[in-house]
Amino acid sequence: MKLSKLSFAVIAASCVMAGAAQAEVKTSGAVAFTTDYKFRGVSQTSNNAAVQGSMTLTHDTGLYFTAWGSSIANPNGGLELDTLFGYSAAKGDITYDVGVMRYNYPGNDSAARATGVVGGATPSNRLSYNEAYASVSAYGAKLGGAISDDYFGDSGKFHYLYADYAREIAQGFGVIAHVGYNHFDSAAAMRKALATGATGEKTYLDYKLGVTKSVNGIGFELSYTGTDFQTDDFIAGGTQSRVAKPSAVLSATKTF
User: Fold this and answer.
1) Regarding the domain with residue range 5-255, which homologous superfamily does it belong to in the CATH classification?
2) How many CB atoms lie within 10 A of CB 94?
3) How does DSSP assign 7-68, residue by residue?
4) pLDDT confidence of 124, banded at 50, 70, 90?
5) What kind and span of H or E run contains 188?
6) Residue 95, beta-bridge partner list
7) Domain edges within the chain
8) How far apart are alpha carbons 206 and 228 in whole angstroms?
9) Tens of pLDDT, residues 17-57
10) Do the strands 94-104 and 79-91 form a parallel or antiparallel pair, or are they unpaired?
11) How confident is the model over 57-84, as a mean pLDDT?
12) How far apart are CA 151 and CA 15, in angstroms?
Protein backbone atom coordinates (compact mmCIF):
# COMPACT_ATOMS: atom_id res chain seq x y z
CA MET A 1 0.00 0.00 0.00
CA LYS A 2 1.15 3.56 -0.59
CA LEU A 3 1.49 6.32 1.96
CA SER A 4 -0.39 9.52 1.17
CA LYS A 5 1.49 12.69 0.24
CA LEU A 6 0.75 14.03 3.72
CA SER A 7 2.36 10.94 5.23
CA PHE A 8 5.55 11.49 3.25
CA ALA A 9 5.58 15.14 4.27
CA VAL A 10 5.34 14.22 7.94
CA ILE A 11 8.19 11.73 7.67
CA ALA A 12 10.40 14.17 5.77
CA ALA A 13 9.79 16.97 8.26
CA SER A 14 10.44 14.64 11.18
CA CYS A 15 13.76 13.50 9.74
CA VAL A 16 14.88 17.12 9.33
CA MET A 17 14.00 17.82 12.96
CA ALA A 18 15.87 14.74 14.11
CA GLY A 19 19.01 15.85 12.30
CA ALA A 20 18.78 19.35 13.72
CA ALA A 21 19.13 18.32 17.33
CA GLN A 22 20.54 15.54 19.47
CA ALA A 23 18.86 15.06 22.80
CA GLU A 24 17.56 12.59 25.33
CA VAL A 25 15.14 9.80 24.40
CA LYS A 26 12.62 8.79 27.03
CA THR A 27 10.80 5.48 27.21
CA SER A 28 7.27 4.85 28.46
CA GLY A 29 4.76 2.06 28.12
CA ALA A 30 1.49 0.56 29.26
CA VAL A 31 -0.32 -2.74 29.62
CA ALA A 32 -4.11 -2.98 29.62
CA PHE A 33 -7.01 -5.37 29.91
CA THR A 34 -10.39 -4.51 28.41
CA THR A 35 -13.70 -6.37 28.31
CA ASP A 36 -14.07 -5.45 24.61
CA TYR A 37 -11.66 -3.85 22.15
CA LYS A 38 -13.79 -1.39 20.20
CA PHE A 39 -12.21 0.59 17.40
CA ARG A 40 -14.29 3.48 16.12
CA GLY A 41 -17.28 1.94 17.81
CA VAL A 42 -16.94 -1.53 16.27
CA SER A 43 -15.72 -4.53 18.28
CA GLN A 44 -12.48 -6.09 17.05
CA THR A 45 -12.84 -9.07 19.41
CA SER A 46 -16.40 -10.24 18.65
CA ASN A 47 -17.51 -8.60 21.91
CA ASN A 48 -14.90 -10.49 23.94
CA ALA A 49 -12.04 -9.33 26.16
CA ALA A 50 -8.61 -8.22 24.93
CA VAL A 51 -5.10 -7.79 26.31
CA GLN A 52 -3.16 -4.79 25.02
CA GLY A 53 0.25 -3.21 25.40
CA SER A 54 2.33 -0.31 24.11
CA MET A 55 5.84 1.09 24.17
CA THR A 56 6.79 4.67 23.23
CA LEU A 57 10.17 6.30 22.57
CA THR A 58 10.02 10.10 22.85
CA HIS A 59 12.77 12.47 21.77
CA ASP A 60 12.74 15.81 23.55
CA THR A 61 12.42 17.58 20.19
CA GLY A 62 8.87 16.20 20.13
CA LEU A 63 9.49 13.25 17.82
CA TYR A 64 8.11 9.93 18.99
CA PHE A 65 7.72 6.32 17.95
CA THR A 66 5.07 3.98 19.38
CA ALA A 67 4.43 0.28 18.98
CA TRP A 68 0.96 -0.83 20.12
CA GLY A 69 -0.56 -4.30 20.13
CA SER A 70 -3.85 -5.97 20.97
CA SER A 71 -5.42 -9.39 20.80
CA ILE A 72 -8.26 -9.50 18.24
CA ALA A 73 -10.75 -11.99 16.82
CA ASN A 74 -9.54 -13.00 13.36
CA PRO A 75 -9.61 -16.51 11.88
CA ASN A 76 -6.13 -16.02 10.40
CA GLY A 77 -4.43 -14.66 13.50
CA GLY A 78 -5.40 -13.02 16.75
CA LEU A 79 -3.01 -10.08 16.76
CA GLU A 80 -3.10 -6.44 15.71
CA LEU A 81 0.30 -4.74 15.90
CA ASP A 82 0.40 -1.03 15.05
CA THR A 83 3.31 1.37 14.65
CA LEU A 84 3.20 5.17 14.89
CA PHE A 85 5.81 7.77 13.98
CA GLY A 86 4.92 11.35 14.81
CA TYR A 87 5.69 14.76 16.22
CA SER A 88 3.99 16.50 19.13
CA ALA A 89 4.56 20.00 20.52
CA ALA A 90 2.89 22.42 22.90
CA LYS A 91 2.52 26.17 22.70
CA GLY A 92 1.00 27.58 25.83
CA ASP A 93 -2.11 25.57 26.61
CA ILE A 94 -2.40 24.17 23.07
CA THR A 95 -0.86 20.83 22.05
CA TYR A 96 -0.39 19.76 18.45
CA ASP A 97 0.17 16.21 17.21
CA VAL A 98 0.78 14.91 13.68
CA GLY A 99 2.04 11.59 12.40
CA VAL A 100 1.75 8.44 10.34
CA MET A 101 0.33 5.14 11.59
CA ARG A 102 0.55 1.64 10.17
CA TYR A 103 -2.12 -0.88 11.20
CA ASN A 104 -0.64 -4.38 10.92
CA TYR A 105 -2.41 -7.76 11.02
CA PRO A 106 0.49 -10.24 10.75
CA GLY A 107 -1.58 -13.44 10.76
CA ASN A 108 -3.92 -12.23 8.05
CA ASP A 109 -1.15 -10.99 5.77
CA SER A 110 0.85 -14.21 6.25
CA ALA A 111 -2.21 -16.24 5.29
CA ALA A 112 -2.65 -14.13 2.16
CA ARG A 113 0.94 -14.74 1.09
CA ALA A 114 0.79 -18.46 1.87
CA THR A 115 -2.57 -19.37 0.36
CA GLY A 116 -3.50 -16.52 -1.93
CA VAL A 117 -6.91 -16.37 -0.28
CA VAL A 118 -8.07 -14.63 2.92
CA GLY A 119 -11.63 -15.26 3.97
CA GLY A 120 -12.67 -15.84 0.38
CA ALA A 121 -10.89 -12.69 -0.79
CA THR A 122 -7.92 -12.27 -3.10
CA PRO A 123 -4.43 -11.41 -1.75
CA SER A 124 -5.09 -7.74 -2.58
CA ASN A 125 -7.66 -7.70 0.23
CA ARG A 126 -5.10 -7.75 3.02
CA LEU A 127 -6.24 -6.00 6.15
CA SER A 128 -3.12 -3.91 6.90
CA TYR A 129 -3.21 -0.24 5.94
CA ASN A 130 -1.71 3.23 6.56
CA GLU A 131 -3.17 6.41 8.02
CA ALA A 132 -1.96 9.96 8.44
CA TYR A 133 -3.35 11.73 11.51
CA ALA A 134 -3.36 15.15 13.17
CA SER A 135 -4.95 16.70 16.24
CA VAL A 136 -5.01 19.83 18.37
CA SER A 137 -5.99 19.86 22.04
CA ALA A 138 -6.51 22.40 24.80
CA TYR A 139 -8.31 22.59 28.16
CA GLY A 140 -9.33 18.95 28.07
CA ALA A 141 -10.80 19.11 24.57
CA LYS A 142 -9.30 17.58 21.42
CA LEU A 143 -10.19 17.88 17.75
CA GLY A 144 -8.57 15.56 15.27
CA GLY A 145 -8.75 13.64 12.06
CA ALA A 146 -7.19 10.84 10.03
CA ILE A 147 -7.04 9.95 6.35
CA SER A 148 -6.19 6.76 4.51
CA ASP A 149 -5.59 6.26 0.80
CA ASP A 150 -6.60 2.60 1.10
CA TYR A 151 -8.43 1.64 4.29
CA PHE A 152 -8.93 -1.70 6.08
CA GLY A 153 -9.21 -4.64 3.65
CA ASP A 154 -8.32 -2.52 0.61
CA SER A 155 -11.65 -0.70 0.89
CA GLY A 156 -10.42 2.55 -0.64
CA LYS A 157 -10.21 6.12 0.62
CA PHE A 158 -11.38 6.86 4.16
CA HIS A 159 -11.67 10.01 6.28
CA TYR A 160 -12.20 10.26 10.02
CA LEU A 161 -13.02 13.33 12.14
CA TYR A 162 -13.48 13.26 15.89
CA ALA A 163 -13.90 15.34 19.03
CA ASP A 164 -12.87 14.24 22.53
CA TYR A 165 -13.28 15.75 25.96
CA ALA A 166 -11.77 14.63 29.26
CA ARG A 167 -11.91 16.34 32.65
CA GLU A 168 -10.94 15.44 36.18
CA ILE A 169 -13.85 16.41 38.44
CA ALA A 170 -12.46 15.05 41.72
CA GLN A 171 -9.21 13.60 43.03
CA GLY A 172 -8.41 10.73 40.63
CA PHE A 173 -11.93 10.72 39.18
CA GLY A 174 -12.85 12.02 35.73
CA VAL A 175 -15.35 12.04 32.89
CA ILE A 176 -14.72 11.40 29.18
CA ALA A 177 -16.72 11.90 25.98
CA HIS A 178 -16.03 11.11 22.33
CA VAL A 179 -17.82 11.37 19.00
CA GLY A 180 -16.37 10.33 15.63
CA TYR A 181 -17.49 10.73 12.01
CA ASN A 182 -16.46 7.90 9.65
CA HIS A 183 -16.62 8.61 5.90
CA PHE A 184 -15.99 6.10 3.11
CA ASP A 185 -15.80 6.80 -0.61
CA SER A 186 -18.91 4.74 -1.25
CA ALA A 187 -21.49 2.46 0.36
CA ALA A 188 -19.76 -0.50 -1.27
CA ALA A 189 -16.46 0.49 0.36
CA MET A 190 -18.08 0.63 3.81
CA ARG A 191 -19.70 -2.76 3.26
CA LYS A 192 -16.31 -4.19 2.32
CA ALA A 193 -14.49 -2.74 5.33
CA LEU A 194 -17.12 -3.50 7.96
CA ALA A 195 -19.01 -6.47 6.47
CA THR A 196 -22.27 -4.57 6.66
CA GLY A 197 -25.36 -5.87 4.95
CA ALA A 198 -27.43 -4.18 2.27
CA THR A 199 -27.30 -0.46 3.01
CA GLY A 200 -26.86 2.66 0.92
CA GLU A 201 -24.99 4.51 3.66
CA LYS A 202 -21.32 5.42 3.32
CA THR A 203 -20.91 7.18 6.67
CA TYR A 204 -21.54 6.38 10.31
CA LEU A 205 -20.99 7.89 13.75
CA ASP A 206 -19.25 6.32 16.72
CA TYR A 207 -19.40 7.58 20.30
CA LYS A 208 -18.27 6.96 23.87
CA LEU A 209 -19.35 8.33 27.24
CA GLY A 210 -17.59 7.26 30.39
CA VAL A 211 -15.92 7.80 33.73
CA THR A 212 -12.34 7.21 34.83
CA LYS A 213 -10.79 6.45 38.20
CA SER A 214 -7.17 5.97 39.29
CA VAL A 215 -6.58 3.41 42.05
CA ASN A 216 -3.08 2.53 43.29
CA GLY A 217 -1.46 3.49 40.01
CA ILE A 218 -3.98 1.65 37.83
CA GLY A 219 -6.34 3.63 35.61
CA PHE A 220 -9.87 2.25 35.32
CA GLU A 221 -12.35 3.32 32.65
CA LEU A 222 -16.02 2.42 32.41
CA SER A 223 -17.71 3.60 29.23
CA TYR A 224 -20.77 3.15 27.08
CA THR A 225 -19.51 2.77 23.53
CA GLY A 226 -21.25 2.22 20.22
CA THR A 227 -22.32 3.47 16.80
CA ASP A 228 -25.45 4.74 15.09
CA PHE A 229 -25.73 1.47 13.12
CA GLN A 230 -28.84 -0.62 13.48
CA THR A 231 -28.36 -4.34 14.20
CA ASP A 232 -29.89 -5.29 10.86
CA ASP A 233 -27.28 -3.19 9.05
CA PHE A 234 -24.93 -6.15 9.58
CA ILE A 235 -24.94 -9.70 8.31
CA ALA A 236 -27.79 -11.47 10.08
CA GLY A 237 -27.07 -14.56 12.15
CA GLY A 238 -23.33 -13.97 12.50
CA THR A 239 -21.02 -12.19 14.90
CA GLN A 240 -21.10 -9.13 12.63
CA SER A 241 -24.71 -8.53 13.72
CA ARG A 242 -23.42 -7.66 17.21
CA VAL A 243 -20.06 -5.97 16.74
CA ALA A 244 -21.43 -2.43 16.40
CA LYS A 245 -24.09 -2.77 19.08
CA PRO A 246 -23.65 -0.23 21.92
CA SER A 247 -22.39 -1.77 25.15
CA ALA A 248 -20.58 -1.07 28.40
CA VAL A 249 -16.81 -1.56 28.31
CA LEU A 250 -14.53 -1.77 31.35
CA SER A 251 -10.76 -1.41 31.04
CA ALA A 252 -7.78 -1.29 33.40
CA THR A 253 -4.44 0.22 32.40
CA LYS A 254 -1.06 0.27 34.13
CA THR A 255 1.52 2.72 32.80
CA PHE A 256 5.27 2.57 33.42
Assistant:
1) monomeric porin ompg (2.40.160.40)
2) 11
3) HHHHHHHHHHHHHH----EEEEEEEEEES--EETTEESSTT--EEEEEEEEEETTSEEEEEE
4) low
5) helix 187-194
6) 90, 137
7) 5-255
8) 7
9) 544 445 699 999 999 999 999 999 999 998 999 999 999 99
10) antiparallel
11) 93
12) 26
